[in-house]
Design goal:
By secondary structure, this protein is an alpha/beta fold. The chain has a single domain, classed as Vaccinia Virus protein VP39 (Rossmann fold, 3-Layer(aba) Sandwich). Helix content is 28%, strand content 28%. It is built from six helices and nine strands, in the order ααββαβαβαββαβββ. The strands form two sheets. A seven-stranded mixed β-sheet has the order 5-4-3-6-7-8-9. The structure holds S-adenosylmethionine. The site of S-adenosylmethionine (SAM) has 26 residues, from strand 2, helix 4 and strand 4.
Length: 218
């Protein structure tokens, strides 16, 4: 189902320059985005736009997801933490990239969305992704350290616990900036226990990261 639409989306994202890495393209080919979109919006699954998933949250636009994944050099057998499960779609793509020997944990603060993401992952064959309900700004010490951390909601700054839980040599990707505007996708590489190299990779627009080390709840 929707195979032609998926192919056409990948072709457009490649032509526009968002997709270039073979492994990321293969992951986009494999994961059925329509299985992660609410039933009444399925016909828009392969348009390049964010879609509402309830509770004021969204599944990000495919081009934005391509930017995130291409910037983080995800590799087989890595251990990855995602903050902001939402629909579970991005977690499924990560699961494809890290393969059977990899491990992915994803944290969602809205309990109903954690359940939505978990159910979508299970029915699409990604039941191995571990979904945790809670405040991802504190990370997940029980399973740290991480090769990669992806934050899919916008933080005022990179939460300190996440930097602590990153392996030396690991990378963290996050949108950083103000609510919905003036946000930048950044990639932070941990070069040593106290040395971080931060690169800015262009503008973006995400829902806020709400939590102890994020924005305060309104
Ligand atoms: N990655 C998701 C996907 O593939 O559908 C999209 C994520 S959506 C843009 C951002 C998500 O981050 C929302 O579901 C929101 O509830 C969640 N979020 C916000 N603050 C959070 C926090 N402190 N911990 C965990 N999740 C959080």
């Amino acid at each position: 189902m929707y195979e032609k639409e998926r192919e056409e989306l990948i072709e457009r994202l490649t032509r526009w320059g968002y997709l270039s890495k073979r492994d990321v393209i293969n992951a986009f080919k494999k994961v059925p985005r329509h299985e992660f979109v609410p039933q009444n919006l399925r016909r828009y699954s392969y348009a390049d736009q964010p879609l509402p998933i309830g509770h004021g949250q969204t599944i990000s636009a495919p081009s934005m997801i391509a930017i995130m994944l291409e910037s983080l050099d995800l590799k087989p057998a890595q251990k990855v933490l995602e903050i902001g499960t939402g629909s579970g779609y991005n977690a499924a793509l990560i699961a494809e990239l890290i393969g059977r020997d990899g491990q992915i944990f994803t944290i969602e603060r809205v309990a109903e969305l954690a359940e939505f993401g978990r159910a979508n992952l299970k029915k699409s064959g990604y039941g191995g992704v571990k979904v945790i309900t809670g405040d991802g700004t504190c990370g997940y010490t029980r399973e740290a350290p991480w090769d990669r951390i992806l934050i899919t909601a916008c933080a005022p700054e990179i939460p300190q616990p996440l930097i602590s839980q990153l392996k030396v040599g690991g990378k963290l990707g996050a949108p950083v900036g103000r609510h919905y505007m003036a946000q930048t996708w950044i990639v932070a590489e941990k070069l040593g226990e106290k040395k971080i190299n931060v690169q800015e990779r262009g503008g973006c627009s995400f829902v806020p990261l709400v939590g102890k080390y994020g924005w305060k709840e309104e």
